[in-house]
Design brief:
This protein is an alpha+beta fold and about 220 residues long. The chain contains nine helices and six strands; from the N terminus they run E-H-E-E-H-H-E-H-H-H-H-H-E-E-H.
Length: about 220
């Protein structure tokens, strides 16, 4: 008998470790195929909710926010790039020069869940930003990415031009903040178990197997 677990993947589009965490989780789920079944939901978290529309130079932003030197930032980018390559994801650090506001992307993801396209859209948004260096706060880009994964472009455009799902996204963000989530990725399993950070596939595989067995 296959056990079904609920996974809430709390993350931001502008978070490279969220890419690594998701790709690792996908590898783990492939390894557990037939042993553990899951329902995967993506929940919103904004690393920089006050970010201006034009964004900010990423090296300057990281230095200001975390106190990192340019050399430390460069080493971190190379580590992220290597981890991504191991998991089949391309980080093009030359193209990703700025960091942007991601609230509209989260509104689009909220809608995509109802359309059964949330996972596909999440991956496409990660690729648009981290691989292609696009601006995820650009509504025209968001519409194009939505259409690329099979969502209705006209509906996406109308949504983004309104304030639709703004309240719902804010409420979900606040829910996780109120429950102690202040860093991402945070992977919540069955509303009880928490795994944080860009863990390797083995960590997710072991945890999911153990949780599923305990739930029998």
């Amino acid at each position: 008998m296959t056990n079904k677990l609920r996974i809430d993947f709390v993350s931001d589009i502008a978070c490279p470790w969220c890419v690594i965490g998701l790709k690792s989780l996908e590898v783990a789920l492939d390894r557990l195929n037939g042993e553990v079944a899951v329902e995967l939901y993506f929940q919103p978290f904004e690393l920089n909710p006050q970010m201006s529309p034009e964004g900010e130079d990423i090296v300057e932003h990281i230095a200001k926010k975390y106190g990192s030197t340019p050399e430390q930032s460069a080493r971190n980018r190379e580590m992220i790039k290597a981890r991504g390559a191991e998991l089949g994801f391309t980080f093009d650090m030359q193209k990703r020069g700025r960091i942007y506001n991601t609230f509209d992307a989260h509104r689009l993801l909220h809608w995509a869940a109802d359309e059964g396209k949330q996972h596909e859209l999440k991956l496409a948004l990660f690729s648009a930003y981290f691989t292609d260096g696009e601006n995820p706060s650009d509504r025209a880009l968001l519409v194009a990415v939505a259409a690329k994964v099979g969502l209705d472009a006209r509906r996406a455009k109308h949504l983004l031009e309104s304030d639709e799902f703004s309240r719902e996204v804010r409420e979900r963000e606040q829910f996780y903040l109120n429950n102690g989530i202040h860093a991402v990725p945070s992977v919540v399993i069955d509303n009880r178990h928490l795994i944080q950070g860009g863990q390797p596939p083995e960590v997710f595989e072991r945890a999911l197997r153990d949780i599923a067995k305990a739930a029998v």
